[in-house]
Amino acid sequence: xxxxxxxxxxxxxxxxxxxxxxxxxxxxxxxxxxxxxxxxxxxxxxxxxxxxxxxxxxxxxxxxxxxxxxxxxxxxxxxxxxxxxxxxxxxxxxxxxxxxxxxxxxxxxxxxxxxxxxxxxxxxxxxxxxxxxxxxxxxxxxxxxxxxxxxxxxxxxxxxxxxxxxxxxxxxxxxx
Length: 176
Ligand SMILES: CC(C)(COP(=O)(O)OP(=O)(O)OC[C@H]1O[C@@H](n2cnc3c(N)ncnc32)[C@H](O)[C@@H]1OP(=O)(O)O)[C@@H](O)C(=O)NCCC(=O)NCCS
What we know:
Elements: E1 2-5, H1 11-21, H2 26-38, E2 47-53, E3 56-68, E4 76-84, H3 93-107, E5 112-116, H4 119-122, H5 129-132, E6 135-136, E7 147-151, E8 162-165
Parallel strand pairs: 4-5, 6-8
Antiparallel strand pairs: 1-2, 2-3, 3-4, 3-8, 5-7
Helix pairs in contact: 1-2
């Protein structure tokens, strides 16, 4: 299995990962997020990664930058979305995509990474609700227990709630 940077040419393959991985109704919204993030001209950059097996795309993950109110010194990202084709799940492809992305972010000096997802899965990688507690999401969460973060570099912990801001692709209340 190889991991590489996703490009615009991967759009159809990325849709073919998300369509069967998520339930109908949800998959279209999440696939659109993955595609929109490919053309997100954020600074620092949005990172979109592909997992390939035998030349075919079997997994995708994206990390986009997050602004924290009144805290320009703390570089933050959010992991979203992530999917592995059903036939390729439980082969550590999801884990490899997360670990590869986290290593890149760590090398860039990123301090905090957020995620909104199943704590039973993301807890394996050190994401936890405590680390995310004082960061207020742009929209009310449908599943507040899914809001988690991980501190990968020293950054002054927020003692009072602060708002976070995401890239345009994530500014859709249906994603939260
Ligand atoms: C979640 C997902 C990306 C994991 O990818 P994967 O390649 O199968 O994951 P890995 O092989 O690295 O890890 C699999 C392990 O996590 C477990 N796992 C997978 N999804 C889980 C979940 N939602 N909750 C708890 N454990 C989960 C598996 O049982 C397996 O456990 P094991 O290592 O003890 O066998 C993949 O299952 C998927 O695409 N699911 C549908 C889309 C989705 O839910 N995306 C995440 C949105 S938050």
